[in-house]
Amino acid sequence: MSSIESLKLRTSIDGWDRQDPEQAFTLPSRYFFDEALFKAERDNIFLRSWHVAGHLSEFAEIGQYVVCDLFGQSIVIARSRAGTIRAFHNVCQHRGNRLLEERRGNTGGIVRCAYHSWCYEMDGTLRSAPRCERIKNFDKEAFAIPQVRLEELGGFLYFNLDPNAPSLAELFPGADEEMHRVFPSLANMRLIEEADVIVPANWKVIMDNSIEGYHFKLSGPCHIDLAKLIDFKGYRLTKRDNWWTYIAPANLEAGEAYGVKLRSDLNPGECFFNIGLWPNNTFYTFPFSEFLGTFIMIPLDAERSLLRFGYYSANEQTAEVSKACMRWMNEELGPEDIALNISVQKGLHSMGYDQGRYMIDAERSNESEHLVHHFHRLVFQGIHGAQR
Length: 388
Ligand code: FES
Ligand SMILES: [Fe+2]
What we know:
Elements: H1 3-8, H2 35-44, E1 51-55, E2 64-70, E3 73-79, E4 85-89, E5 104-106, E6 110-112, E7 119-121, E8 126-128, E9 147-153, E10 156-160, H3 168-171, H4 175-182, E11 190-199, H5 203-210, H6 221-228, E12 236-239, E13 243-248, E14 256-257, E15 260-261, E16 272-277, E17 281-285, E18 292-301, E19 304-313, H7 320-347, H8 370-384
Antiparallel strand pairs: 1-10, 2-3, 2-5, 3-4, 4-9, 6-7, 7-8, 9-10, 11-19, 12-13, 13-16, 14-15, 16-17, 17-18, 18-19
Helix pairs in contact: 2-8, 5-7, 5-8
Bound molecules: FE2/S2 (inorganic) cluster and fe (ii) ion (FE2).
Fe (ii) ion binds near residues 209, 223 and 337.
Protein name: Aromatic ring-hydroxylating dioxygenase subunit alpha
GO molecular function: 2 iron, 2 sulfur cluster binding; dioxygenase activity; iron ion binding
Cofactor: Fe cation
């Protein structure tokens, strides 16, 4: 081990999660790059938690599927010819070939392995295997692809690789109602576009940046533009056990947003909203835009994450202001935050830094970092268990 790494491992972590939030020191910097801690996150957090697979409308047709990759695992979520939506491992039961490579598609109802043509229904059951009638004691039913748990919350489907994990309803009480309250046309949403960006930063660096308003008026020009569209006094960050929200009314004085003139008849006073479901599922909307955005950070390794921006809308035609907002998110605000995340990731390796302070005030005001502390506590307890 290099001297820099051993220096970083010196900080004691005993009792870290029992600190008073208002006086707490931040998670030591090694939690953002240490390989052993990253593997513990994989085993104790990601392989046991719920991950968004897609909106229900993405599985409307028979054969329609989405593939989700996570830590070397690949999961297919699809609608079968029987009409059911199921999740199963993306692997042929003959010699282990991966079945589907595309992120989304439609097999028409049957998926054929490209190696020896074993064919499966889109619920994972084996339909046919060439020459199997000539094979002694070949039981097709024994070669169904293992299923993965799948549940729905707020119009979106989630998978979980842990058969014993608590259900979505147990983990996130009230979140389904909150999604329906903020997005009344949730059932009619359709995917408009999805963009993936690989960011050289630990997944938590990205998450931390997305759950505090402290940097809003204090960082780059796009953040200041966004702050102008929000009634900042009404901005509230609320923590629940395993999920959190922040919400602010739009600033109704605003005359334009994302470079587009606003008209009160076309752009009613919509809110700024963000909901996070442990560990890495985020849904949001921006003021004056009618889309629902998904913001999912998928760890690739300890210091690299796939950032997936999804955009959904219930309207046939996407309004001009919403299109401008999506462009602004992809090309301006997103890159401004990504540049901060990359810079933080570099700084975390410095021999001159290990722990800072959470800027948490007694009122848990709009600029307080209490959600970051809450999130880190869930990470810490996810890695080490809650009994420290
Ligand atoms: S590996 Fe799939 S049919 Fe042989
Ligand atoms: Fe930001």
